[in-house]
Amino acid sequence: MTPQQIAESVGVKFEKVAPGYLNLCVRTGNLLITSGHVSDMKGKLGAGVTVEQGQAAARECAIKILRSVWDAHGTLDNLRCLKVLGCVNSTLEFTDQHLVINGFSDVIHQVFGKQTHGFHARSALGFAALPTNAAVEVEAIFEIME
Q: How far, in Å, CA of 8 to CA of 27, rounded?
């Protein structure tokens, strides 16, 4: 199955979105660079939000990013995920940001292949606050393989 087919088979719905205040995904050359996509889940890891809830928030960010990439490119096929930046709203004592962002990486591995086009470089960082008190924000860079 292709990445597009895999995403659809796990329930990701794709539809064109009217442009908003910011561009959610910009193409330059053969790269697609996304804006940060925030989770609908609110709160702080280490202060009421569990790692498992954070992973669910990161998965939600992955689905939002896949939709934005699809909206800009028209398909998920022929793409390679190069780089991911995961931002976790967390207390100073919380140190499992990498486990939270695994929720995002798991989706990318499932859709694009863990050992192939979904095998990406990644940073997972803790932040004192994120916009709208989102639990997680993620941005990514994809390569168009033509």
A: 23
Model pLDDT for residues 21-40, shown as the tens digit of each residue? 999 999 999 999 999 999 99
> Domain of 41?
35-144
What backbone torsions phi and psi does residue 137 show, to the nearest 5 degrees? -135, 135
Note the pTM of the prediction, 2 decimals: 0.96
Angle between helices 51-73 and 97-112 (to 10 degrees): 40
> What total of structural domains would you count in the chain?
1
* Contact assessment for residue 34 and residue 25, using Cβ atoms and an 8 Å cutoff: yes
CATH number at residue 75: 3.30.1330.40
Pair 136, 39: CB distance under 8 Å: yes
Q: Measured between alpha carbons, how far is 65 from 133 in angstroms, rounded to an integer? A: 19
